[in-house]
Structures are given as structure tokens and as C-alpha cells.
Amino acid sequence: MNSSVQKIAGCVAFVLLLTGAGQVAAAEREGAPTDTGIATVRVGTDGAPDVERKLGASPCMVPSLTGDTVSYLYNAKDAKGHYFLRLEVNGRVDAITVSKDPPLAGVCYAPLAHTMSLRTEGGLELGATMEEVLRVYGKPMERFAVGSMARFRYVAMLDRTYEWDLVFRDGRLVEWTVGSEE
């Protein structure tokens, strides 16, 4: 092969490499989460009256130390197991966590007033595999792993900045949290 053919082949390979890299980056950006709610409650828009109307008045509310935020605590059971739901409300819902383990220990959790799906708006539910989460949300901004535990963190700017924190145990989703602050 003469040197001009080698140069052209090298340029073509370089262009193909750049094009492929751009496609991967674009696919990862498109996978950013957009689901800001679970169990019909949405972070940033719903307030305490909405939480109580949609999930039921909770006798299990825990105020923060500063008194400006209240945690609404619920439990739910379905064919796949027992789940815990925690909603942080400060005027509006600031954060929602659904988990296999109680987010706060030593407090009560009220039953949901209605049977409802605890799937996210994006279709994820506890027990999803890491691969399923990556397919729905794309590559996380941060990823941590220690032993059988792993954590994915996503941040996206929608109508405001939202942050998702997903915890996995043995490759399965055991906790999903979305939060936002103005």
C-alpha cells in the first residue's frame, strides 16, 4: 500500500471513530431521567394536601429538626413484596423515596389509602436490574460500588434541577429517590 492510500485510510478510520464516539455520547445524553414522580405524586409540584388526597392522610409524619420539612411515611405491599415510601414535604414535595428497607428506623409507616403501582413514571420498579435501569435512564453521572451494593446518581435540568439516587443490592434496585430544591 502506498503512503497516500495509507493516509486516506487513516483519515477515514479517524472520522469513523469520531462519528461513533459522538453517537455514543448522544445516546447517553438522551437517557437522562425525566420521571419526577411515583404513586401519582410529583416532586416540585404537589404539596401536602395533594399527598394526603392521593395517598391518604398519614398518622405517621416526622418533622425535621428545623421544623420546616415533614416526612410523610407509608408502607405498601404487593405480590412482589413490602415497600416503604417517604415523601419530604416543605410547602411542596421536595423528595420521594421508595425502598425495600425503611428509610427511617424506629418510626411508624401508615398503609397507603389505595392500592396503587409504585412504578416510576419511566416504568421502573423496585427489583429492576441495573441493565433495565441503564436502558431506561442511560449512563449515570456517578456510579459507586462497595461489595454487593451499588449506587447510580443522575442529575437533569427540567423545569428545575432534579437529582435521582438509585441503590442496588446484588444487582437489583432496592431504593429509588428523586429530589429537587428551588
In short:
The chain is an alpha+beta fold. It is built from 3 helices and 11 strands, in the order αββαβββββαββββ.
How would you describe the overall organization of this protein?
The chain is of the alpha+beta class. Helix content is 24%, strand content 37%. It contains three helices and eleven strands; from the N terminus they run H-E-E-H-E-E-E-E-E-H-E-E-E-E. It has helices spanning 3-30, 48-55, 130-137, and strands spanning 37-38, 41-42, 61-63, 70-78, 81-90, 92-99, 110-111, 142-146, 149-157, 161-169, 172-180. The strands form two sheets. Strands 3, 4, 5, 6, 7, 8, 9, 10 and 11 form a nine-stranded mixed β-sheet that branches. Strands 1-2 form a two-stranded antiparallel sheet. Strand 9 and strand 10 (161-169) form a beta hairpin. The N and C termini lie far apart (62 Å). Residues 1-30 have low confidence and may be disordered.
Provide key terms for this protein:
182 residues, alpha+beta, two-stranded antiparallel ribbon, 3 helices, 9-stranded mixed sheet
The helix count comes to 3
The secondary-structure element order is HEEHEEEEEHEEEE
Distance separating the two termini? 62 Å
Bin the strand percentage.
Answer: 35-45%
- Unreliable runs: 1-30
Give the radius of gyration. 21 Å
Helix content bin: 10-25%
Structural classification: alpha+beta
The global form is: globular
Task: Report the strand count.
Answer: 11
User: How would you characterize the largest beta sheet?
Assistant: 9 strands, mixed
Mean of the pLDDT scores? Answer: 81
